[in-house]
Structures are given as structure tokens and as C-alpha cells.
């Protein structure tokens, strides 16, 4: 099955700085890489995703990059704000028998943005 | 449009008791799944379903049963609760008939304590 490693487990930055979270995956057939943000007491919510035919995707202050050769993808948040403080999860699907029906999550990164 | 609704929000059980965690979605999603979230472990897949009448095991299925009689509902049953099942449980759904290449929509979770 898929193995997803996520680093760092905690990250503290000053407001306005950038934050980078990295994930590696093991299944070379994986083709979809989402990032989720989880605020306290709520379920995770998708913030950005990327498919394997694209190397980079950007949405305002958030970007994701994908290196299929090295099997890693990263989340970049620029100009961080206190409301970016949350737990962030990366994920990758496990390709079994030609279908990706199991999504494996990293263990999460607690991001704290200090005012 | 309520999205994914989970009930109850909180539950305390004694060892050996049984209960059903309810999950309903109103987005006509084919794919539904259950995850458990434990500190430092991320989100781990328990069971999933790709449509009414079809269910399969995830990473940690032992001690849990599921069924999918309708597109909207995907209940999770604990037949004989154990302290190791103390966790936060999330239900998630996705519009995905080919596989997991579209976003998961999560409920807000059920916090279960087994004493």
C-alpha cells in the first residue's frame, strides 16, 4: 500500500513569513495529491490539490509543487497570517488494481503563525 | 446544502457496549469513507464504499462494521467497544466513480470515549 511521510510535525513562523511543508510517497502509480487544512474541532477541508500531469499549482497565497521522479510534493504558504494556524495534512491515493480507492494521509503538521 | 452530517458529536461508551455512528451526505456522492484520528497518527482509513451495496476494508477495519443500503447514508457500527477505539471518527464523501481523484468532503467528527 501507499506510505506517506510528512515533515515537519510542527512549524512556527512569524506573521508575513513563508511556510513550507513536505511530503514523500511510495506508490509511483499515485496520480493525485491533495492538501487538507484542519481547524480545531472541525473536519479537514481541502485547500489545494495537484494531479500528476502538472508540476506546480498556485491559488493566491498557497502553492503546491510535485516532483514525480523523486516522489515528493510540497505545500508553500506565503505571507502567512494568524488565521493560517491549523493542522495541515498531505495525502496520496493507493493505486490497487487500476483504481485509487484508498487515500493515505500523512501524520500532519501543526502550523503556528505568531502575530 | 448540509454537506456531510455526522451524529452524535460526542459519545461515551463502556467496554463491551455497541453503538452506531451515523453519517449522511446530501451531495449525491458515490464514494463514502470512515477515518479515525488519533494524536500523532494522522487519519487512518477504516472502511469505504464506492456505491450502494458495495463496501471494502481500509487500513484499520478490525472491530468495525459498515453497510451502504442507500447513496446518502454510511453508518459505522462498533459491535463490542474497546478502550483502543477511543478516537475521533470522521466520515468523508467524494464525487468519484473512477477513484479518488476528486476532493474528499469531511463531516465535523464524532468524539468517542470508551471507558
Topology diagram in text:
The complex is a heterodimer of chains A (115) and B (115).
Chain A lengths: L3 E4 L2 E5 L4 E7 L6 E7 L6 E7 L4 E4 L2 E6 L4 E6 L8 E11 L2 E7 L3 E6 L1
Parallel strand pairs in A: 2-11
Antiparallel strand pairs in A: 1-3, 3-8, 4-5, 4-9, 6-7, 7-8, 9-10, 9-11
Chain B lengths: L3 E4 L2 E4 L5 E7 L5 E8 L3 E10 L2 E4 L6 E3 L9 E3 L8 E8 L10 E2 L3 E5 L1
Parallel strand pairs in B: 2-11
Antiparallel strand pairs in B: 1-3, 3-8, 4-5, 4-9, 5-6, 7-8, 9-10, 9-11
Number of helices of chain B: 0
Structural Rg of chain A: 14 Å
Beta-strand proportion of chain A: over 45%
Largest sheet of chain A: 6 strands, mixed
Which term fits the overall shape of chain A?
globular
Quaternary organization: heterodimer
| Average pLDDT score of chain A | 92
Structural class of chain B: mainly beta
Question: N-to-C SSE series of chain A?
Answer: EEEEEEEEEEE
Beta strand count of chain B:
11
Q: Uncertain runs of chain B with pLDDT below 50, 5 residues or more?
A: none
Structural class of chain A: mainly beta
Biggest interface, and residues per chain?
A-B, 28 and 27 residues
Shape of chain B: globular
Report Rg of chain B. 13 Å
Helix content of chain A: under 10%
The percent of residues in helical segments of chain B reads under 10%
What number is the mean pLDDT of chain B?
94
In angstroms, what separates the terminal alpha carbons of chain B? 36 Å
**Secondary-structure element order of chain B, N to C:** EEEEEEEEEEE
Q: How would you describe what is shown here?
A:
The complex is a heterodimer of chains A (115) and B (115). Chain A is mainly β and 115 residues long. Chain A is 0% helix and 61% strand. Chain A has no helices and eleven strands. In chain A, strands 2, 4, 5, 9, 10 and 11 form a six-stranded mixed beta sheet that branches. By secondary structure, chain B is an all-beta fold. The A-B interface holds A 1, 6, 9, 31-32, 34, 36, 41-46, 49, 51, 89, 93, 95, 99-108 and B 4, 31, 33, 35, 40-45, 48, 50, 56, 58-59, 90, 92, 98-101, 103-104, 106-109.
Amino acid at each position: 500500500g501507499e506510505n506517506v511521510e510528512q515533515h515537519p510535525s510542527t512549524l512556527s513562523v512569524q506573521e508575513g513569513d513563508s511556510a513550507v511543508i513536505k511530503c514523500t510517497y511510495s506508490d509511483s502509480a499515485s496520480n493525485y495529491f491533495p492538501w487538507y487544512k484542519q481547524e480545531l474541532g472541525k473536519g479537514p477541508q481541502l485547500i489545494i490539490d495537484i494531479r500528476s500531469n502538472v508540476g506546480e499549482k498556485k491559488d493566491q497565497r498557497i502553492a503546491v509543487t510535485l516532483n514525480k521522479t523523486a516522489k515528493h510534493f510540497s505545500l508553500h504558504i506565503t505571507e502567512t497570517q494568524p488565521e493560517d494556524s491549523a493542522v495541515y495534512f498531505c495525502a496520496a491515493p493507493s493505486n490497487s488494481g487500476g483504481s485509487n480507492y484508498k487515500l493515505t494521509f500523512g501524520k500532519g503538521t501543526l502550523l503556528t503563525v505568531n502575530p | 446544502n448540509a454537506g456531510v452530517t455526522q451524529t452524535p458529536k460526542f459519545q461515551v461508551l463502556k467496554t463491551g457496549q455497541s453503538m452506531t455512528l451515523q453519517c449522511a451526505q446530501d451531495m449525491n456522492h458515490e464514494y463514502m469513507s470512515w477515518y479515525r484520528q488519533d494524536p500523532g497518527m494522522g487519519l487512518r482509513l477504516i472502511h469505504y464504499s464506492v456505491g450502494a451495496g458495495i463496501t471494502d476494508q481500509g487500513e484499520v477495519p478490525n472491530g468495525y462494521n459498515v453497510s451502504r443500503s442507500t447513496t446518502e447514508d454510511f453508518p459505522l457500527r462498533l459491535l463490542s467497544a474497546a478502550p483502543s477505539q477511543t478516537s475521533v471518527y470522521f466520515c468523508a464523501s467524494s464525487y468519484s466513480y473512477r477513484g479518488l481523484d476528486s476532493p474528499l468532503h469531511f463531516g465535523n467528527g464524532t468524539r468517542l470515549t470508551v471507558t
